[in-house]
Amino acid sequence: MVLEFKPQGIYCPAGDFFIDPWHPVDRALITHGHADHAREGHNRYLATDIAAPVMRHRLGDITLDTVAYGEVREIGGARVSLHPAGHIPGSAQVRVEVGGEVWVVSGDYKTTPDRLCTPFEPVRCHSFITECTFGLPVFTWPSEADTAAEINAWWTANAAAGTYSLLGAYSLGRAQRLLSLLDPAVAPILTHGAVEATNAILRGQGIALPDTIHVTPELDPRAHPGALILAPPGALAGNWARRFRPASTGFASGWMRLRGVRRRRALDRGFVMSDHADWSGLNEAIKDTGAENIYPTHGYTDIFARWLNEEGYNAKPVPTEFTGETFEEDGA
Fold first, then answer.
1. Please, what is the average pLDDT of the chain?
2. pTM above 0.85, yes or no
3. What is the DSSP string of 36-93?
4. Pairing of the two strands 72-75 and 78-84
């Protein structure tokens, strides 16, 4: 096999490297900077040049080598290249070729374009290791334009009523994607420190984002009436958010497609948005690879593998320690 599943993660014997390993290894190829894929403790890292600044911010002084999308590296007996995954800026699929056989590890991905990421690129292969976080037919995403209109209308109504809009968003990727959709003419946009730190990194890479105001301990909310406040999900229910009263709380996630999730999370509004592929996106991506062998990882792996087998693929679910999209701060 070109790739094997080891206790440390996905392993390439020919190149003696791991892809997104969850335990410390010598050489790690990293698909993107979210914490469940880019972990501490590896001796050497390889990622895209676009992902590198965020990885250094999150992991500190690491030994990190970078490649551009499509650039081929010979690592031992393996030919390796990274290709756009469309998940967050710099996210990549990893193509590994050994003796003419090609495997691709998807990492996290979405097939619909946004305003921040290099669009997803199908990569032909014999075997495809794919996430399936939202591998059920119920998960279908509205257009970005529809989601933007819904969020901006909610914010506008709140501002007119003298209410703040607290919007939960993962600090890397989702928050900046939401920022790209917001209408700054409504009112000021305020940000939690974790979000603003990532904003600064991406702005430094030339990614355009609207102006934001960092929420510091000294900030007086009364000076920013009607503001929308972007914060990690965990901050919405804590002391940090209590200074913004009255407030309406919202969260943008693929899980908002499921009934009851918003109510259980005590949210006023839920907006359906994900940086992962929906049901049709997963099926489209798999078809476009031309792969016969499919290995679904984190998500509805057993159900999705059964579906793929019924569709004529050779599918086998593989357990991993990736978390996919959660309600935690560093979910995907």
1. 95
2. yes
3. TTS-S--SEEEEETTTHHHHHHHH-S--EEEE-TT-EEEETTEEEEEEE-SSSTT-EE
4. antiparallel
- Residue type at position 75: I
**CATH superfamily ID and name for 4-138+275-315:** Ribonuclease Z/Hydroxyacylglutathione hydrolase-like (3.60.15.10)
CB 186 within 8 A of CB 164: no
Looking at 3.30.420.340, 3.40.50.1820, 1.10.10.10, 3.40.50.10890, the CATH number of the domain 144-271 comes to 3.40.50.10890
**In the chain, where the domains are located:** 4-138+275-315, 144-271
Say if CB 122 and CB 283 are below 8 A apart: no
pLDDT attached to residue 327: 55
Q: How confident is the model at residue 106 (pLDDT cuts 50, 70, 90)?
A: very high
Residues above pLDDT 70, as percent of the chain: 98
Q: CA-CA distance, 41 to 24, in Å (whole number)?
A: 5
